[in-house]
């Protein structure tokens, strides 16, 4: 190589090396960042989220399904099949419950907002699927700590949960349910108490609740309260 071309060659090689380093350090992270941003954007635009707002689900279950009012459940991060089955049972009139503060059966409010007086649905099965798909992928709500619960009481609740065979379907600590059964760890205490009591007393009979009856009919109000205290304090947001 002629002496006059050597500086040019060195410059070209240096530029190429800088380009490689820049690619390794800058472009790849940028690509990852762009991908993450695109995923976040897609999540915000999820049709299920829009339908959740449009069908007024937020009025009772809260923004994002994590700030439910009164005795309604937080439903973000819940099992897809369980949510879909419960929505369909409520719309069909199969899932009822004990009277709420207004004197009407629980779940009637949801049915009233999604079913006309003539019995026509205001929501389609495809819309239900989209809402459920979105909610299931949302992070669950952290535990609501309204009052202090002693360590001794929490241990008693854990023992009652185990002795009552609740783990058979709902999994250890209520975190790993069988398919089609709900996550109950970290759920609102009041909701857990009402649903367990309603199943025990025969007010709620839809779906797979009959499997639960032989076990829960042996529980008194205090045992149910113990289990609810224990489950409501489990943090499902922890990895």
Feature tags:
single chain; mainly alpha; 0% strand
Your description of this structure?
The chain has 239 residues and is mostly helical. It is 56% helix and 0% strand. It starts with 5 loop residues before the first helix and ends in a 7-residue tail after the last helix. About 8% of the residues have low confidence.
Shape estimate? globular
Q: How many H/I helical runs?
A: 11
- Sheet with the most strands? none
The overall strand count is 0
Helix content: 55-70%
Structural class: mainly alpha
Mean pLDDT across residues: 86
Beta-strand residue percentage: under 5%
Unreliable residue runs: 11-29
Radius of gyration: 26 Å
The N- to C-terminal Cα distance equals 61 Å
Element order: H for helix, E for strand: HHHHHHHHHHH
Layout of SSEs?
Elements: H1 6-44, H2 47-54, H3 58-61, H4 80-92, H5 108-114, H6 125-137, H7 151-163, H8 167-170, H9 189-200, H10 209-216, H11 221-232
Summarize the structure.
With 239 residues, the protein is an all-alpha fold. The chain is 56% helix and 0% strand.
């Amino acid at each position: 190589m002629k002496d006059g071309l050597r500086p040019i060659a060195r410059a070209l090689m240096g530029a190429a090396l800088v380009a490689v380093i820049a690619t390794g350090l800058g472009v790849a992270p940028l690509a990852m960042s762009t991908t993450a941003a695109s995923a976040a954007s897609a999540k915000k635009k999820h049709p299920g989220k829009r339908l959740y707002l449009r069908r007024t689900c937020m009025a009772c279950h809260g923004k994002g399904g994590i700030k439910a009012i009164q005795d309604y459940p937080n439903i973000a991060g819940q099992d897809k099949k369980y949510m879909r089955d419960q929505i369909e049972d409520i719309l069909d009139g199969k899932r009822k419950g004990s009277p709420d503060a207004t004197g009407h059966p629980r779940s009637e409010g949801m049915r009233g907002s999604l079913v006309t007086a003539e019995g026509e649905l205001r929501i389609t099965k495809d819309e239900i699927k989209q809402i459920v798909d979105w909610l299931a992928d949302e992070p669950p709500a952290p535990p609501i700590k309204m009052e202090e619960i002693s360590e001794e009481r929490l241990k008693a609740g854990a023992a009652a949960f185990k002795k009552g065979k609740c783990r058979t379907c709902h999994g250890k600590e209520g975190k790993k349910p069988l398919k089609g059964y709900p996550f109950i760890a970290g759920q609102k205490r009041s909701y857990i108490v009402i649903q367990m009591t309603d199943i025990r007393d025969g007010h709620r009979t839809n779906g797979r609740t009959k499997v639960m009856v032989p076990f829960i009919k042996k529980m008194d109000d205090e045992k149910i309260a113990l289990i609810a205290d224990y489950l409501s304090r489990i943090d499902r947001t922890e990895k």
